[in-house]
Amino acid sequence: MENETVSELNQTQLQPRAVVALEYQVVTILLVLIICGLGIVGNIMVVLVVMRTKHMRTPTNCYLVSLAVADLMVLVAAGLPNITDSIYGSWVYGYVGCLCITYLQYLGINASSCSITAFTIERYIAICHPIKAQFLCTFSRAKKIIIFVWAFTSIYCMLWFFLLDLNISTYKDAIVISCGYKISRNYYSPIYLMDFGVFYVVPMILATVLYGFIARILFLNPIPSDPKENSKTWKNDSTHQNTNLNLNTSNRCFNSTVSSRKQVTKMLAVVVILFALLWMPYRTLVVVNSFLSSPFQENWFLLFCRICIYLNSAINPVIYNLMSQKFRAAFRKLCNCKQKPTEKPANYSVALNYSVIKESDHFSTELDDITVTDTYLSATKVSFDDTCLASEVSFSQS
């Protein structure tokens, strides 16, 4: 096998270098620049929003930050070298770059898969097992799980340090350097198949099963929210009128909580579905090529597979913005953070005495956009739109 490979290489050295069409180069550079550029900006915004906004630091958002970092790694390590390869037609980052860039590519790919699996399990526990979620779905535990995920994938991907090398091909008109295999391609098939099973098939099967259970709880068999169902909770109220008021308020708060959880679940389910669809072309190609003596490497189809991967890493912030009101408000606030008012706001002395009777959703990603105190201090006119919040406020302008 080794002699046949050397013979094939010697034959290719006598041939002129294959010329890549100009339109292919232009399309590649433009698409990769646009998708990777927008994806890098969007994922950085996700990280900043969660890190800088206290009420956004939830277990689910912690996993989304891990996913954003992994997507950033894929976009930088896989997308940008694709541009230089299209421009120069050769590997320009040297041997160390070959090892490190390939390592970061697979680290980002595998870490994103593990992050998706982690927040899928977290959502399942939070919704289907709320009692266990009180001590399992916490912010500190989420951080520990993420540390384990990145430690595991970091060690696993170190395998590529021993499998890569620079390949030099000499043609009549040029010498081409590529970052490729150190040994025969046939020996890499078990690695690719293991990656396919561990980081794609298993997470997708698990996500399908768990989201099926979640959908059954949230959409098919929701917890009854009829005020009559909760009448026992309020049987000690002083009057019938107060009882009805409390029941209606509790019912509205409960419906708001369920609606919020449904919206978060829909958003995360869309992330999982797009991950499965956009990774399918590349994963399928790798599996098929593992069984072919001559791999299928048509340029335009390879470009399509790469673009799907870059889209998967770039589209998540767009999903958050479209499907999450809280993320949308946080993104808008982050973009307008530098636009400070020129007029100095009036100073107010605020006395607050309020009671919250809204059921707090400890496990939901959808938390309050802004605290009550922030609302009072930022405006001279106060109105309470949230029926779940009863407050008494007195102002004395100094």
Automatic annotation (TrEMBL):
The protein's name in its UniProt record: Thyrotropin-releasing hormone receptor
Positions of transmembrane segments: 26-50, 62-80, 92-109, 145-163, 197-219, 264-280, 300-323
GO cellular component, one term: plasma membrane
Family: Belongs to the G-protein coupled receptor 1 family.
Main location: membrane
GO biological process entries: phospholipase C-activating G protein-coupled receptor signaling pathway
InterPro entries (UniProt xref): GPCR_Rhodpsn, GPCR_Rhodpsn_7TM, TRH_rcpt_1
Keyword Transmembrane: yes
Topology in membrane: Multi-pass membrane protein
Domain G-protein coupled receptors family 1 profile: 42-320
Places the protein is found: Cell membrane
Main function: Receptor for thyrotropin-releasing hormone (TRH). Upon ligand binding, this G-protein-coupled receptor triggers activation of the phosphatidylinositol (IP3)-calcium-protein kinase C (PKC) pathway.
Alphabetized PROSITE patterns for the sequence: G_PROTEIN_RECEP_F1_1, G_PROTEIN_RECEP_F1_2
Gene Ontology molecular function terms on file: thyrotropin-releasing hormone receptor activity
Keywords on record: Cell membrane, Disulfide bond, G-protein coupled receptor, Glycoprotein, Membrane, Receptor, Transducer, Transmembrane, Transmembrane helix
Keyword Transmembrane assigned: yes
